[in-house]
Specification:
2 copies of one chain form a homodimer. Chain A is α+β, with helices and mostly antiparallel strands and 484 residues long. The first copy, chain A, contains 24 helices and 8 strands. Chain A is globular and about 75 Å long. At the A-B interface, helix 1, helix 2, helix 5, helix 12 and helix 13 of A face helix 1, helix 2, helix 5, helix 12 and helix 13 of B.
Chain lengths: 484, 484
């Protein structure tokens, strides 16, 4: 059934003759039937790529970044698993869950794969500490890894298949995100949820071995379920978004696998996804150099559990602390040259609660010097009320300085003995220019999983993530990550 | 946590320092923090209305229209239940369904309430034969009735509670739809799915007895899950949309009932639903005269299983046929004065399949004269190949005539004996001006359920719908409507 036919069907079906004037009705129908020629075959070409792309096609650096994406995601999913938000989701959805097909990371309960993917997706985003595709601010792993880790417990998936699906899912959502960013994000959409559902559908569709036609429909059903608005930021609803993108993506792929049909051109058609949801559409971002250029290779990971605006200062503080074996009692003053955003967003001088600490450059620098870290533990109620940290934060003096970019900081620690320690940060750790090392990712993982998963098991899970390509079954990772 | 705080949290969390230039980053953050004052308390005021509105507040005409909405919906849900689309949904979702909490209308399977609501919502929209709120082209019952009929099988719901929830759900989605129509629909959204999820969340939230705060969050979680694009029209994806609106609305309400939080102002905030999803926002449509003006009283029902553009001609043909006991062999010619849309949308002269018949004014008029009806059976493969109908359709002569409005038709049937039978239709049956009678709704119901539900049971279901207010348990309707 081609487009003209469908257009006509619909115009005939919906026209509200008796409620609106004739001229209005005619204008609407005319608009409907005189649609401009749409961009061609975007959805189908993407679908064709997805069904044909194999693990063997993946360059080594992309495979490597895939394992880092996986390891980082598992860490944050375990780390968030005891949060009240997850408790609520588990409690609310238990009465409706299907068979206990899949694990919850860091917990004992099991759910059907759609509900498990939702809850794990929520868990992985609670601390805002997950991965980031910086060009779009998409957090790619949430929708995709949540979906395919759950799926892999229901149906056998080899490690190679898994990694390929993970990369393809991330690739799909980031490319679709690129096509509509920044307009789409600026207007109010939480792009992780709106683009993420495509990523989840593509990845699960790959594991379901969909045909090109079925994959086209899966992308269409995904397009029908965008998730998330920026207005929800600051509430549990923010974490809801990657979770729901994961479960709705599975929903799309599963229906398509039984030939539940959709449009052939849902992404690019005149009244399809990109035109409806954004004022910018750059389809070359979706189709250009497929299989050659990999957005999935551009993923980044947060070293610190707070907004990126404070990362340069925390990075500088930790470097100077470690290099000089600094203790708080040595410090007279910390001078910071910063971009205006730092004070605008994180100018809170005397935070009383852990969450408030995430909006205090004074606390962040002080705790980094005292504890040599900026993880979730450094933004706890304990940390912001620690007397040593409280005392030191009053000595932090940020000054807005022309010429300092947001990604930069210039720090001088003045010691009581008169020495001055200086560090200029051009790009903080965790950026594309200075990526976190594998070792740093492991430390982050261990800190997050500490107290939830036994240390010996933490080691095993990390090894399984690094070696995912050689696993006979990717389900091992999910099973090990459930709380014993 | 008030808005400024949330805005700051997010700006800090997402700023991609290393990937975008400093000036871009700053401009984005500045935009984020200098949001214009939004419309005030729309979501919360609506939530307050929903949690306080009681059955006793409903005017008699609204209660009556609610029962008609219910009866019509049950008929179309049963009627669509054997369609391939439903078979596929059942097959695809069976492996993931939770406890067998709720019935499928017209079928034997049982699913958890979210999946049951999805499948019943799909079933009710397959023939495009469900109810229509003509101001917005929303099909109101699909998302709402699907959700609360399933819910009523899980938890006791009296008939009065049920009818109140149905009306409030319809009211919510139609008011929210009014606020953004037509821009929202014009740009490409399938408004039944985007507004419908609010209706389902509100109605289920009412049955869950949510607090005002919880209802505010339920509406926020609903806002995070708009469903459906017009590009999908003509595929199974169109029916997907009311179904998914129903299940996602339940999902929102169930999470909110356990205090899963959202924004306080998800509908009206600067980066909330209405601003993100439409260029028009008229909040008075949502809040004006709540509890006095009822959109739910303006619901309409299709008498004929095809696009509204052909309804005036079918109406005229049936009237003249019945009044004159007309048979096909008496007819020399049928002259029709029509609006241009009729030929533009339904100009197919020789349909070969039932579906094509829906786009043939020639077939529609012929079969109406031969069979005195325009139901799903009159648009079957059987009907379009019936020799008597095929012969008669060649005698139908539609002429585009200036001055004829889309809701009008002027028909003259010239008989072989020289007589001329004339009928001018100002508003077709099924419009707001000439609503279907209860008796006509029953005939439509019976035709749809024939062959699926035994006749004696059809009578009982219709009686239960008419008398829903006196039912101790609304679940009776769903239980009776499952196939034995």
């Amino acid at each position: 059934m081609h487009t003209d036919r469908r257009t006509i069907i619909q115009a005939a079906a919906v026209l509200p003759l008796s409620a609106i004037g004739a001229s209005t009705a005619f204008a609407q129908a005319s608009t409907t039937t005189s649609a401009a020629a749409p961009a061609k075959d975007v959805t189908r070409t993407l679908a064709r790529y997805l069904v044909t792309a194999s693990y063997d096609d993946l360059p080594a650096n992309v495979r490597k970044e895939g394992t880092r994406t996986l390891l980082n995601w598992v860490g944050v999913a375990i780390g968030g698993s005891r949060h009240e938000t997850v408790d609520i989701a588990v409690s609310a959805l238990s009465p409706f869950s299907g068979p206990q097909q899949a694990s919850l990371f860091g917990r004992r309960e099991r759910f059907d794969i759609m509900n498990a993917a939702f809850i794990n997706g929520v868990s992985s985003h609670i601390f805002d500490y997950d991965d980031t595709h910086l060009k779009t601010i998409i957090h790619p792993a949430g929708p995709v890894a949540s979906a395919i880790l759950a799926f892999s417990e229901m149906q056998p998936v080899s490690g190679k298949e898994f990694l390929n699906a993970l990369v393809l899912g991330v690739e799909t959502e980031c490319r679709i995100g690129n096509a509509v960013y920044p307009n789409h994000y600026d207007v109010g959409w939480h792009i992780t949820g709106t683009a993420g559902v495509f990523g989840a559908a593509a990845a699960v569709g790959k594991l379901l071995k969909l045909s090109e036609q079925q994959m086209t429909w899966a992308l269409g059903l995904a397009a029908s379920q965008p998730v998330g608005l920026r207005e929800s930021f600051g509430s549990m609803n923010k974490s809801f978004n990657p979770g729901r993108a994961a479960s709705s993506g599975i929903f799309a792929a599963v229906l398509a696998s039984k030939n539940f049909t959709s449009s052939e051109a849902m992404i690019e058609a005149k009244r399809g996804w990109a035109n409806t949801i954004s004022t910018k559409q750059d389809y070359n971002e979706i189709l250009g150099d497929l299989g050659k250029r990999y957005e999935a290779a551009l993923n980044t990971y947060k070293p610190f559990a707070c907004g990126i605006v404070m990362h340069p200062a925390i990075d500088a503080a930790i470097q100077l602390r470690n290099e000089n074996k600094l203790t708080a009692d040595q410090v007279e003053r910390v001078d910071l040259k910063v971009h205006p955003l730092v004070l605008e967003l994180t100018g809170k001088k005397t935070p009383q609660q852990g969450l408030e600490g995430k909006f205090s450059i004074y606390h962040a620098v002080a705790v980094a010097i005292v504890e040599g870290a900026g993880g979730e533990k450094q933004f706890s109620d304990r940390a912001v009320t620690d007397p040593t940290v409280v005392s030191l934060r009053s000595k932090v003096v940020p000054v807005v300085t022309p010429g300092i970019k947001p990604e930069q900081v210039d720090m001088t620690i003045v010691l009581k003995d008169g020495r001055q320690l200086h560090r200029h940060i051009e790009h903080a750790i965790g950026s594309l220019e200075v990526p976190m090392t594998d070792k740093q990712l492991e430390t982050k993982f261990s800190d997050l999983a500490d107290g939830i998963i036994p240390a010996v098991m933490i080691r095993r899970i990390m090894d399984a993530c690094w070696n995912v390509e050689s696993l006979p079954s990717a389900a091992e990772i999910a099973k090990m990550s459930a709380s014993a």
